[in-house]
Structures are given as C-alpha cells and as structure tokens.
Amino acid sequence: MKILANDGVSQTGITALENAGFEVLTTTVAQEQLIDYINTNEIIGLLVRSATKVRKDLIDNCPNLKLIGRGGVGMDNIDVEYAKEKGLHVINTPAASSESVAELVFAHLFGGVRFLYDANRNMPLDGDSKFKQLKKSYGGGMELRGKTLGVIGFGRIGRATAKVALGVGMKVVFFDPFIEKASIDLDFFDGQSVSFNFKGIGKEEVLKTSDFITLHVPAQKEYVIGKKEFEVMKNGVGIVNAARGGVLDEVALIEALENGKIAFAGLDVFESEPKPEIKILMHSNISLTPHIGAATLEAQDRIGSELASQIINLLK
C-alpha cells in the first residue's frame, strides 16, 4: 500500500507508516503530472500541504485513491466535499501546528515594536558608518506588555496566540462569528495552570480597541480586513496575518501604512503567493516570512505522527 507525501512529511510519520506496512514515497511530483504518477504507482493515499492542489479532476481520474491528507489546518487546496462524496477519506491535522503559528505571530510582533524588520536591513549596510543615527531611528520602540491584542478568529491557532499574549502580559479581546465564549488554560513548566474565560465582542469593537491585531481565519470570498476596517482602527496599530493570503487587502494595507494609520505589518501569507507583490516585499514597515507558520521541527513531527495515526486507523 503506497502513500505519496507530495509536499513532504516528517521522518516520524514515515517511520510510523512503514512500521504499519505502508510504503511512503516522498517524490515531489509536478501538479500536471500528478494524476499519471498516482495511477502508474498505484497510490492509495495522497498527503499534501499547501503547495499541491487536489481538485475534482484529480479525484475523478485517480480511481485507486482512497485517502487525501492535509498536513496542517487549512483545506482550501482540496475539494473536500467532492472527495467525500466520492467515498474518499479526507483528513488533516488541526491541532499540530497551532503553537508554531502563534510563536511566529509574536516573532513579527516583537520585531515590529522594536523595528527589527527594518534594523536588520539597514545595520548590515550602515551599521559601521551611521551607528548613532540608526540608534536614534530605532530607539523609540514600545513594549507589548499592557497592550491589547485583538484576535480575529478564535479557533485553535487564535487561542494558542492568545496564550502567548497572556504570558507576555497583554489584554486579549476576540471576535469570532461562530464562538461566543471560550476558556483557555495557561500551563507553566512546573505544573501550575491558570484558567482564563473570554467572551467574544463585535468585530468593530475589536478593531477600535486593539493596539495590535492578528488574523486567524480560513480563506474567505471577501476581505476580512480592508479599507473600511483600517479606517476604524486606532492610529499606529500593528497587524499580523499568518492565516491565509486574501483575507487582508494588501492594497489597502499599503495605503494605511503610508498614511500612518498602521505602524507596521507582519505577513507570513500573501494574496499573490507564491509571487508576492514587489510593493509588499520592498516596504520598509512590513516584516516578512515565506509562509512558514507551521514550519517548525516540532510541528512537522506532530503533523507526521497525527497523519500516520489517522491513516493507520482508516486504511488498515
């Protein structure tokens, strides 16, 4: 029984599957050659991340395929309902990467309030000749402690991000159209735990009251944050999008950065991914990462283990 991990899978996952009698192929097959490869090699399980698309044509033309697995949370690159209608198992790993994404959000936030996104560009160029000027330029940072973080989307990743914020000493408010109340347990290294209860507020109230805003929503047909939403926010807000490209209007973001409404942005995902717009890439007030929210060694091990466990339970 062959499993194709077309976008890769951790060795932990491979070992678990091989011990259960599966053969795991990690060849990266081009999208246009994928149907032929699956059929020629009698693949019964296809594992993907965000790069490979699993649409109706692939599902229709691969009769031996029994399972599609997504290493991560978002399933927008898979025609999930259609696959299920055709009798395929569709699985993902919604809990495996939450902490990794949350920590990346705070990497952008910590870098944003201390101008690291710009200092790391200019220190190699001018650090030896303009040290004092750079020190003055970047000497007006602020602390996150005591500020308000607005979380839009309070699922697993939104809550994991809230945990980090609580640990930093921030106030957390959230908006989620599907969640009214939530409890979070903040666990510490010595076994102590503190519980926090949250009640959701309106989206506009989150936008008006937050010092920093982070997005944790699935792909949408319309922008979650656009020109109208930017106008409601406080002046000097920092915003991070580590969710999906297309939930944040990048044209409106550039305008908000230019007029000072937004102090900085952190982007891990992009509207035109995998070719982000040059205006985004070159902007001095945007902290940039190439869609690496779930790309930690720990998260990839958890993803591989979760996928393997589900595959073994469903196909053995």
What do you see in this structure?
By secondary structure, the protein is of the alpha/beta class. The protein contains 13 helices and 13 strands. The protein has helices at 11-19, 34-40, 56-61, 80-85, 98-113, 116-126, 131-137, 156-168, 203-209, 227-232, 250-258, 278-281, 297-315; strands at residues 2-5, 23-25, 43-48, 67-70, 89-92, 148-152, 171-175, 181-187, 193-199, 212-215, 237-241, 262-267, 286-288. It has a 6-stranded parallel beta sheet with strand order 7-6-10-11-12-13, sandwiched between helices. A 5-stranded parallel beta sheet has the order 2-1-3-4-5, sandwiched between helices. The protein has a two-stranded antiparallel ribbon with strand order 8-9. The longest helix has 19 residues, at 297-315. The N and C termini lie close together (10 Å).
Beta strands, count: 13
**Strand-pairing-aware structural class:** alpha/beta
The secondary-structure element order is EHEHEHEHEHHHEHEEEHEHEHEHEH
Name the shape in a single word.
globular
Q: Nearest-angstrom radius of gyration?
A: 22 Å
Q: Low-confidence parts, pLDDT < 50 over ≥5 residues?
A: none
Sketch the major β-sheet. 6 strands, parallel
Please state roughly what percent of the residues sit in beta strands, choosing from under 5%, 5-15%, 15-25%, 25-35%, 35-45% or over 45%.
Answer: 15-25%
